[in-house]
Amino acid sequence: MVRRLELEALQADLAAVEELLSDRTEADDPSGWVQYSRRKLEIEKEIEAFGTRPGPAAEVALFFGGRPVFGSRAISSDFSSQALTAFQNLVSKRYAAPEQGGLASRGRIPQKDRSTLMISDIVRGSFGFVLSEMNQDQELVDSRLKGTVDEISAILFRLCAEDEATLDVALDELNSRILAEIRLFFQILSDGGATLRIVEDDKEYLFPDEALRRGRERVERMDITEDENVEIDGLFYLLPASHRFELLPGDKALGVVRGAIGEVAYARMIGIDGLISREYIGNTVHAHLGRRIIKEHGEILHTAYTLIDIIRE
């Protein structure tokens, strides 16, 4: 089960035992007092031993509420199958995109077998499904699929946010094929009259009716034009903590170009010591960029760049 849910369950058990203890004393009920005191210590040790670091494999819980759900007992099979399939396809397309340099708007999803999530548990509290990565290897670092699931959850939440700054962060991550799947996912939830809660190891995102309507309306108005053959020369600066760059073009009319760093470009900048070579920082480079122009009703809403490759000049 998702670690956050396990911890919440332990904390709820602890609260229940503490309430039982508060209703009795050792003198009034020696047997019950000893029993519940022992149980309290056991739960506290479990919580202490739980640790703070999430596991390395992908695991996420999707809780649905609203019209498709009947209390915490049942959920519409048509709705749940459509919603889970749309979420899986969204994760798979996001997973495939970095290594494929973008995806066609239609067609088979590359590497889908590596990005498959399995239903590993059913959880109550509205009605939820735990989706897990069935990775047999005992990895010590977070899997790539775990990172992809984290990214998708955050993108969905930011697209539904009220403030423009949070929305802009999501727009940086969009491409045309991901946008198509997000449209479908929001449509399924909205048409089904559902609400959504996403729970990961250390995060939780809530999607009430109003937020889902806002997100759906936004993505349905959007259109993305992509160009992976943008070439710009300029001074290069790196923001390593966020895996992003800034480029000051020689053509001042272009303004400052900012964006994410692709895997190929990042690998090229790594020196023999495993660190980013300083020869790129603050110097003139030739940058091969991908550019995504996001429009809303024909008006440019946002322009996002990805550094595909880089050559020191």
What can be said about this structure in brief?
The protein has three domains: 3-50, no CATH class; 59-207, no CATH class; 224-312, Beta Barrel (OB fold (Dihydrolipoamide Acetyltransferase, E2P)), CATH 2.40.50. It has eight helices and twelve strands.
Describe the protein in words.
The structure is a single chain. The protein has 313 residues and is an alpha+beta fold. The chain folds into three domains: 3-50, no CATH class; 59-207, no CATH class; 224-312, OB fold (Dihydrolipoamide Acetyltransferase, E2P) (Beta Barrel), CATH 2.40.50. Helices cover 40% and strands 30% of the residues. The chain contains eight helices and twelve strands. The chain has helices at 3-22, 30-50, 77-100, 144-159, 164-171, 176-191, 209-221, 263-269, and strands at residues 59-66, 69-70, 74-75, 117-124, 127-133, 194-199, 204-207, 222-239, 244-249, 257-261, 284-296, 299-312. The strands form three sheets. It has a five-stranded antiparallel beta sheet. Strands 8-9-10-12-11 form a five-stranded mixed barrel. Helix 3 runs antiparallel to helix 6 and helix 6 packs antiparallel against helix 7 (209-221). The longest helix is centred in the first third of the chain and has 24 residues, at 77-100. Mean pLDDT is 86; it is low at 99-105.
